[in-house]
Fold Ammonium transporter.
Amino acid sequence: MVDPVILAGAEIGAPDTGDTAWMLTSAALVLLMTPGLAFFYGGMVRSKNVLNMIMMSISAMGIVTVLWVLYGYSAAFGTDKGSLLGDPAEYFGLRTLMSGFGEESAGVPLVGTVPATVFVAFQLMFAIITVALISGAVADRMKFGAWILFAAVWVTVVYFPVAHWVWGGGWIMEKVKAIDFAGGTAVHINSGAAALALAIILGKRKGWPQTPFRPHNLPFVMLGAGLLWFGWFGFNAGSAVGANGVAGVTFVTTVVATAAAMLAWLLVEKIRDGKPTSLGAASGIVAGLVAITPACASVNIVGALVVGAVAGAICALAVSLKFKFGYDDSLDVVGIHLVGGVIGTVLVGFVGTADAPTAVDGLFYGGGVDQLWRQIVGAVAVLAYSFVVAAVIAFAIKATIGLRADAEAESAGMDESEHAETAYDFAAVGGTTRTTAVKEA
């Protein structure tokens, strides 16, 4: 990813049109991932909760966008303050970044070779989906108002600072020098740790784990996984911040690792359960995408295969940890995003190669443990910070407006109780609108 600290006193110049076109496309691709996630999660819950699940993802698009343009971008990518936070006031309301377009020939504010506004939009999409990812852990039981409040507070006090640590010139980027090209720590470990804290404090769904909570619409799940895979090329290749060779490398490593992860997950299912499933294929796809995200610019093809295969196999096993430890992570955010994010981040220290764009050798390529310890420190720091702060926010909401829907609302379904809607109209079962009208006539 381009060094964002060049925004201090933003450089003025003429943007590269090819790079700008690619980055606008990448931003749109990453935004598409959030509706894709909504389908992925929505298909995994019961039919009476699907709209609520989709609304949790879609609401993040509204909440995070408003906060990002007001102060979030500045807090993440503004001038560094003590290696912990960007100056929240520097680009408040994107001031100075939206100017200079009356005389565009004289130049506009740039990040690298693209307009600063394009970089703002691209990074916004990362913030949106990070918040949306958390919602899968609390399906079927969290009050929608409590979710809105949690999302707004968490993105402010956790995501914005962590994005600065990892990408904006903060301590993980500048002092530890851990590599996270596109979001293994800032997005996946960050959201997974918050999901774990929220699931523990919220408590188990009524009847879990004795009651089977089967996905109500597996085609939705597969559609969501497909949209996520498609959008992820913007996520990873877009993080090159240009239409260049780095984007090409990350595009290829992303598709290779994802394919390997899907196959590894299905192999584990076949050995363990006797049958490979469509849910397993979709979950393996996401696990591979998660794991290659931090490593996509650090590995060669062999490394991408290793990252994908290891993530697919371990995440397939990790999703059962919730039964062993008793936390109800409804849609396996912890088993896929937290575990997958840790795997991808740490494996950079093993299979990273100096021949890749980030030019760092890991342990298996003669680099010793130097990069490995840096990766571990970055992963553990983000995990611990997100978990602790998310827990504090959740406890505060629980003590004030309440965190969980009441038993009656859970039983009726979150769609009816929280939104006064249903996803499916079963009243017309037994006849189409046309046949019903004929009978009434």
Residues 4-9, 433-441 have pLDDT under 50 and may be disordered. The first strand starts at residue 12 and ends at 13.
